[in-house]
Amino acid sequence: STVFFVHFSVYFYFSIIMNFMCVKCFDTSTHKDDILECSTCKTFLQFYCAGYSETNLKKFSNNTKTKFNCTVCQIDIHKFQKSPNNQKSENKVNSINHMEKNIKELMNSIYFMSSQFDHFNNKIDTIVSELKNIKLVNEKIIAKIR
Fold first, then answer.
1. Rounded CA gap, 47 and 102, in Å?
2. Domains of the chain by range and CATH?
């Protein structure tokens, strides 16, 4: 039982690590090729949520993909370049990036806990079903004895 739980926890931990969650639609994907990672804030976007078609995505070189910036970071970079007080803008960008990272971690935690809840719910359903079967067998044995 403990070994199963540890194995299960490790399995779900790594399945979450292997999933890429889009910050726009919150869908998860295991296909890194369908995902664009913002080079500034390190968040993930599915190509269509970033406004690209599959055809356009296939035309991207690896270099283009590594330099991709989400629209939030593009706007921040644009403002930063025009701002007379670049330090304040940089602090705001860093603050937003930190908040987005925290949100991403929270979403991963929620996904993990949801998976755990579903697993435990299934286990409880199985145990209840097994108890009903044991009760029926027990009643049959008692009936035969009488």
1. 22
2. 2-145 (3.30.40.10)
